[in-house]
Specification:
This protein is mostly helical and 157 residues long. It contains eight helices and no strands. The radius of gyration is 15 Å and the shape is globular. The N and C termini lie close together (6 Å).
Amino acid sequence: MKQISYELFKTADVKEIVEVIEKELGTRNESPFWTDKIVPFSEAILSVLIPLRDNRMLFDPEGNPQGELTPELFLDWSDFVSLKSLAFTLQKSNVARELLRTNLDKSTCQKYEQIDLKLLGDYLSRYTVNLENESLDFPISNYNLHQGVSNVIKSLL
């Protein structure tokens, strides 16, 4: 899947990428437990990364501009702390109507269009992430479970 995933991440929509991930999970005989975690996670993260990709506004967890959506960038954002940060960055950007907290040039940031955060918010809520106060932490057990999700995805990509 490694070579295929680069092309998928460059051009495919959320549904296509998630279908490939789900199919790959099936071929590896992963426990249904992981499928039940990985599919919603993939849908949630891609629901925000694909619009950023399509608007040429991708950035990494450090805020640095990225030219393409790659499996590596997807994995960078799969860290639970980074994912929470991404959610708050986009939430604040939706309110400001400008992409915030990145190192992208100002003119690009001003072209930002609101991104629907429902799937990402629903996913984070399942793991007890407070979506009102960014400084509040989440239970370490939820972080550890999410790390398992990230590890399985890493093995797929």
